[in-house]
Amino acid sequence: MNFVTLLYPPAEVVTRLDEVLAPVRADRPDLRWSDPARWHVTLCFHGRDDPGGLPDFSDLVPPTIRLGDSGTFPRVLWMDVHGPLRPLAERAGAPEDWRPHLTVARGAGDAPWPHLPFDGPEWTVDEIVLVRTGTPTGYETVVRVPLSTPND
């Protein structure tokens, strides 16, 4: 069981990315494609260390972000995230070299990875979520923290 601080993209972003990935998924059944219903932008992977909740984000301006082209970590194909997420990731506990991303597929270490160009629609982050992974239902929400805009 692990803990992850994340944010969920809005439905229109998920739909658009899903449409772009559909032909690639059909061409690459060797990859384990993530369920679009579970897509999220990882801000901080805490591992087995329960952070005991989320810190206060109320002084941070909710950033406007968008998904971009794909990239890879060992055995992971992900979509890049453009926008000022570093303050949120740092506040959540991410190390300085952490790269916020949205995982779309996993594969063997030697799998050739496709390059997936993508210019997703922008959205303003409205909440941060801490989840517990590896539960019988997949992800279990521990806590949700709304982000307020300057006009709230």
What is the general shape? globular
SSE-based structural type: alpha+beta
What's the CATH first level?
Alpha Beta
Biggest β-sheet: strands ordered side by side in the sheet: 2-6-5-4-7
pLDDT under 50 segments (min length 5)? none
CATH level 3 topology = Cyclic Phosphodiesterase, Chain: A
- Residue-averaged pLDDT: 91
Q: Would you identify the CATH architecture?
A: Alpha-Beta Complex
Count of β-strands: 9
State the distance separating the first and last CA atoms.
36 Å
Written as H for each helix and E for each strand, in order along the chain, the element string is EHEEEEHEEEE
Strand count, sense and barrel status of the largest sheet are: 5 strands, antiparallel
The Rg value, from CA coordinates, equals 15 Å
Quick one: CATH superfamily? Cyclic phosphodiesterase
The number of helical segments is: 2
Strand content: 35-45%
Helix content: 10-25%
What number of domains?
1
SSE order and pairing:
Blueprint: E1 3-7, H1 11-27, E2 32-33, E3 41-47, E4 64-73, E5 76-82, H2 86-92, E6 101-106, E7 123-124, E8 127-135, E9 138-146
Antiparallel strand pairs: 1-3, 1-8, 2-6, 4-5, 4-7, 5-6, 8-9
What is this entry, summarized?
16% of the residues lie in helices and 38% in strands. The chain has helices at residues 11-27, 86-92; strands at residues 3-7, 32-33, 41-47, 64-73, 76-82, 101-106, 123-124, 127-135, 138-146.
Which labels suit this protein?
152 residues; alpha+beta; Cyclic Phosphodiesterase, Chain: A; 2 helices; EC 6.5.1.-; ligase activity; Cyclic_Pdiesterase; ligase; 2'-5' RNA ligase
